[in-house]
């Protein structure tokens, strides 16, 4: 997958927008490949998955992705979908 979509937004996000379709759950995702590398996700904790995905994110977004993943993995009570998409759009 490309690290950026056609609108210049990161393809790697900490949460999905409300109404997004899910074609593969995190339990089914073993590898994610971008032009920046390969992340092996099978059997890893959420924090380990976040770290692996940050490593293959586009450099323009890796710091933002890292900060948001910390927010959502350390404070999961804040991970409300409507709140998260507002943050992502406000910062990006």
Entry summary:
The protein is mainly alpha-helical.
Please, what is the average pLDDT? 74
Question: What ranges have pLDDT less than 50 throughout 5 or more consecutive residues?
Answer: 78-92
How much helix is in the residues?
25-40%
How is the main sheet built? 2 strands, antiparallel
Sheet/helix structural class: mainly alpha
Number of strands: 2
Q: State the end-to-end distance.
A: 20 Å
- Helical segment tally? 3
Adjacency order of strands in the biggest sheet: 1-2
Radius of gyration: 13 Å
Taken in chain order, the helices and strands follow as: EEHHH
Proportion in β-strands:
5-15%
- Dominant shape: globular
Pfam families: AcetylCoA_hyd_C (PF13336)
Keywords: Membrane, Transmembrane, Transmembrane helix
InterPro entries: AcetylCoA_hyd_C (IPR026888), AcetylCoA_hyd_C_sf (IPR038460), ActCoA_hydro (IPR046433), NagB/RpiA_transferase-like (IPR037171)
Transmembrane segments: 64-91
């Amino acid at each position: 997958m490309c690290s950026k979509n056609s609108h210049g937004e990161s393809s790697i996000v900490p949460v999905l927008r409300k109404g997004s379709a899910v074609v593969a759950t995190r339990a089914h995702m073993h590898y994610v490949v971008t032009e920046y590398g390969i992340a092996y996700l099978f059997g890893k904790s959420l924090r380990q998955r976040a770290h692996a995905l940050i490593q293959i994110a586009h450099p323009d977004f890796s710091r933002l992705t890292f900060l948001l993943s910390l927010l959502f993995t350390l404070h999961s009570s804040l991970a409300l979908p409507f709140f998260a998409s507002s943050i992502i759009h406000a910062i990006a």
